[in-house]
């Protein structure tokens, strides 16, 4: 059965989608069958993977609303599979307000394909809304990217409380797979925040090496490629491989 990992942070701009795509690719390089699920109505992951969200008729929202509709899966995109999303997912979020047991709808939609994959990575939206709750309810693990910036650091308490509430009410088995400091630079503030993150988060789960701020990530996304395809010798690939190996050790 697949290990299901939600990549989650309620803040935007912390490299969540970038991490999802690139971690998926590095798991593929480790010979794991990997599915990416886009749960963000912005459809950024769908775009990064080479699809045009607004052109898609079949997206994940349909399967969430109707469990008789199979997940729409696009295969072999840089060696990975993708269940795409577009802006219609925002309407789905509203429709879910009146659906029975709505927290489990993504988990139910995924139940038929769990045995087809080694890993399923869910790109959560940057919010604490229904779509994030669905994602965290469906996951075995949550991987948390956190920007080494004061505002992002201040949000960690709310983030951890959200995970606590998910465990308490809908998914007691949810485990933290680790924290990934992102967009790190050598500025003094980044170093101070990184030290604070180490003190606060290391007792809770593994704190991975930092992913530095690098324009190559944006350039790779613009070219709709993982970084390892776009720039095979980029130094950040070492960190991404360490994270993939860490996911490989999850039990």
CATH topology: Rossmann fold
User: What do the pLDDT scores average to?
Assistant: 94
What structural class results from the helix and strand content?
alpha/beta
Strand content: 15-25%
Fraction of residues in helices?
40-55%
- N- to C-terminal distance: 12 Å
Lateral strand order in the biggest sheet: 3-4-2-5-1-6-7
Largest sheet, described in full?
7 strands, mixed
Q: In words, what does this structure look like?
A:
The structure is a single chain. Helix 1 (16-29) crosses helix 12. Strands 3-4-2-5-1-6-7 form a seven-stranded mixed β-sheet, sandwiched between helices. The chain is of the alpha/beta class and 251 residues long. A hairpin with a 2-residue loop joins strand 3 (74-77) and strand 4 (80-83). It has one domain: P-loop containing nucleotide triphosphate hydrolases (Rossmann fold). The mean pLDDT is 94. Helix content is 42%, strand content 15%. The longest helix is centred in the first third of the chain and has 14 residues, at 16-29. It has twelve helices and seven strands.
